Amino acid sequence: MALQLMKIVVAASTTINTDPTPEKFFFVTTSETAAGTSLTIDAASFFQDDGNAATELPALATNNSYFNVYINGVLQMEGNSTYTPGATGVGSLVFSLPAGGDPILQSTSVVLEVVNFSPTANTTVST
Question: In what residue span(s) does the DUF4183 domain sit (predicted)?
């Protein structure tokens, strides 16, 4: 019998699910914020989707999350805001208004949306 190359036959398939976990936080301004200044909102100043006061802003999963800021229902540019996760006194959203623009008026709604993804993978190997 002649020599033969012996190979292992393997088939694999992977299913990946990316499950988002969105959280929304709401704030209504109590005074006007002038152009060229910053609006700083502490974690405890937000309220949650269910109307209860927020106690902490969630951490952002590295390379697997994002946050959006809406002011008066309009999505804002990323470069204008700084998000810091954490509890009262640590966690905050700082929104910097460009100089020469319009102010944020009193009683304006601010919505912070934080989305983290929880990916799962399932691999099936057949030999």
Answer: 38-114
* pLDDT of 6: 83
pLDDT in tens, 48-98: 999 999 999 999 999 999 999 999 999 999 999 999 999 988 999 999 999
Q: Where are the domains of the chain?
A: 20-117
Whole-number Å distance between alpha carbons of 81 and 95: 4
Q: Which whole-number Å values give the CA distances from 81 to 21, 96, 112, 125, in the listed order?
A: 21, 6, 10, 46
Contact 20, 26 (CB under 8 A): no
92: Cβ contacts below 8 Å, ≥ 6 apart: 40, 41, 42, 43, 57, 83, 84, 86
Residue 35 in contact with residue 25, Cβ under 8 Å? no
